[in-house]
């Protein structure tokens, strides 16, 4: 087994590993080749230092992925770690080795990007994935938050469309993209784990992603000013496995001063109506269960139900230099 970093040419091999993990764990998050290629080309990832991979012949059998998130507003830098081990290679210590690598590497990457700023390493685990949860707890991570996936069938019974006075809903366009980013950032500013988007991160992750669907994304305008936004992504690999067309509502946000006036509900009702017309069989979204804005209730009233829960684990990061064994390039 050879250890090293992921490379730009690994998209096909990484997609194969994602598929094997999905077949075993039913994560609901398989990635196709295009999505894997996008992750490998992500502007926030340093492949040489921010990834690790175990290879058996031409196959990737385990990997870790640690991008440096784009901002540290609020005095804290959050790093979100992800990874996976092929089912045939589990219980051989690979997962522990990758988590240990992330714990050693995060302080170096964080200090380089935001020196002197408090940092925190995050790891997401599905509630029903006992192995990942146990690994997180054994390596010192603590539970900090619960998130949920929610889904609803389409067309179903669409929620009533009641647009607030003075507000109109329009389809996303490039001319409105900067306003969409602004609304997202302002509406999420008081949310747990908030990270503002730069122009580059917004484009690469959201409206420039291969998953973005502009025709299914909308803004609520008061006059010419955006006060709400709804962004839709479609994950083709996931849909192929599910054998249905599902639209994933990636972002729903309303400016703070417009909350409680029906903007989010109007955006959701409009989007669900359009998505049904476009031939989607279901809609899904992710939500912070502990969100003080009552988002779970908003989505429940729109016909969504929780289908899966996830736990976010966190580990404080002390910035500094990693030990020599950190990083890739190790062989066994």
Automatic annotation (TrEMBL):
Keywords: Acyltransferase, Transferase. Coiled coil: none annotated. Gene3D superfamilies: 3.40.630.30. InterPro entries: Acyl_CoA_acyltransferase (IPR016181), GNAT_dom (IPR000182), N-term/lysine_N-AcTrnsfr (IPR051556). GO terms for molecular function: acyltransferase activity, transferring groups other than amino-acyl groups. Pfam families: Acetyltransf_1. Transmembrane segments: none annotated. Residues 1-155, 167-325 form the N-acetyltransferase domain. This is Mycothiol synthase.
């Amino acid at each position: 087994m050879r250890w090293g970093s992921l490379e730009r040419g690994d998209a096909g091999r990484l997609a194969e590993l994602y598929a094997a993990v999905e077949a075993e764990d039913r994560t609901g998050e398989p990635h196709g080749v295009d999505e894997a290629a996008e992750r490998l080309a992500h502007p926030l990832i340093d492949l040489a230092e921010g990834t690790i991979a175990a290879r058996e012949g031409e196959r990737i059998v385990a990997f870790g992925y640690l991008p440096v998130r784009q901002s540290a507003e609020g005095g804290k830098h959050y790093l979100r770690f992800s990874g996976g081990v092929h089912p045939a290679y589990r219980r051989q210590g690979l997962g522990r080795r990758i988590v240990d690598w992330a714990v050693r590497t995060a302080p170096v990457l964080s200090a380089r990007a935001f020196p002197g700023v408090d940092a925190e390493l995050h790891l997401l685990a599905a509630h029903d994935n006992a192995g990942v949860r146990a690994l997180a707890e054994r390596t010192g991570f603590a539970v900090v938050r619960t998130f949920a996936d929610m889904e609803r069938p389409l067309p179903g019974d669409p929620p009533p469309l009641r647009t607030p006075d003075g507000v109109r809903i329009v389809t996303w366009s490039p001319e409105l993209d900067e306003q969409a980013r602004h609304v997202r950032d302002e509406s999420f500013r008081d949310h747990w784990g908030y990270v503002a988007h730069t122009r580059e991160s917004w484009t690469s992750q959201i409206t420039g992603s291969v998953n973005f669907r502009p025709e299914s994304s909308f803004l609520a305008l008061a006059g010419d000013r955006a006060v709400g936004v709804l962004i839709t992504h479609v994950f083709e690999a996931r849909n192929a496995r599910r054998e249905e067309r599902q639209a994933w509502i990636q972002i729903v946000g309303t400016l703070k001063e417009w909350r409680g006036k029906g903007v989010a509900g109007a955006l959701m009702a409009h989007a669900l109506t359009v998505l049904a017309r476009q031939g989607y069989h279901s809609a899904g979204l992710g939500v912070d269960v502990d969100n003080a804005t009552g988002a779970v209730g908003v989505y429940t009233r729109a016909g969504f139900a929780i289908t899966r829960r996830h736990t976010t684990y966190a580990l404080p990061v002390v910035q500094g230099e990693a030990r020599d064994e950190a990083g890739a390039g190790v062989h066994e």
